């Protein structure tokens, strides 16, 4: 399973799908996907897929709205309560949106992002991961109300760490051990925002950002999770 495929604002000039996603999968000996979740159809989450949908066989696509896709790919909406048991230890559950929210004309595409809760049993120090897509304060409030005892070790910040996501009350309620912002270096929106960084700092929640660490990997070996930063492999990137 893959969640989102990124995307360049102009996939013709530089294709995230062809020049990043396909080579990454090939190096890892992956020639097809059982499932792809597109949290929503903003270009920076789905553009990579749209550029390679004819080149990569995908059995099932899951999302809050349906894109154009090959006939051999089945589509399913992501609804709160869905659950996939990938193995005896790994499960993924959809926490948002509800069917009613998906059908609401008043709700934005960002707030309808598929929010995924990934659990890896008997792992340390990280076993509960929350992927927020581009969801903001409205969804965060709903999740706190619906799941008051939710345990989160690693929080993938909503909307790349925008100031309109990661509300103080949300961060304080979840108390994650670690927060991650997926954001490009020198991105025009300034993600992750200074306000979000200040909230995290005040709550003593460490922040990792892909523009600084590069690809962030969580590798499980015999119940212990090790982390790896791609940029650590290239000393000249640290200068």
Characterize the structure shown.
The protein is an alpha/beta fold and 239 residues long. It is 23% helix and 25% strand. It contains 7 helices and 13 strands. It has helices at 16-27, 43-52, 99-102, 137-146, 168-174, 194-202, 210-213; strands at residues 2-3, 33-38, 58-63, 74-77, 83-85, 90-96, 115-120, 128-131, 154-156, 178-181, 207-209, 216-221, 224-229. The strands form 3 sheets. Strands 5-6-7-8-9-10-11 form a 7-stranded mixed beta sheet. A 4-stranded parallel beta sheet has the order 1-2-3-4, with no helix packed on it. A two-stranded antiparallel ribbon has the order 12-13. Helix 2 links the parallel strand 2 (33-38) and strand 3 (58-63). Helix 1 (16-27) crosses helix 2. The chain is globular and about 45 Å long. The protein starts with a strand and ends in a 10-residue tail after the last strand.
Order of helices and strands: EHEHEEEEHEEHEHEHEHEE
Please give the number of β-strands: 13
Q: What would the principal axes of the Cα set say about the shape?
A: globular
Low-confidence stretches: none
**Helix-strand category:** alpha/beta
Mean pLDDT: 92
Q: What portion of residues belong to β-strands?
A: 25-35%
Tally the helices. 7
Q: Strand order within the widest sheet?
A: 5-6-7-8-9-10-11
Kindly report how far apart the N and C termini lie. Answer: 35 Å
Radius of gyration: 17 Å
Q: Helical content, roughly?
A: 10-25%
Query: How would you sum up the major sheet?
Result: 7 strands, mixed
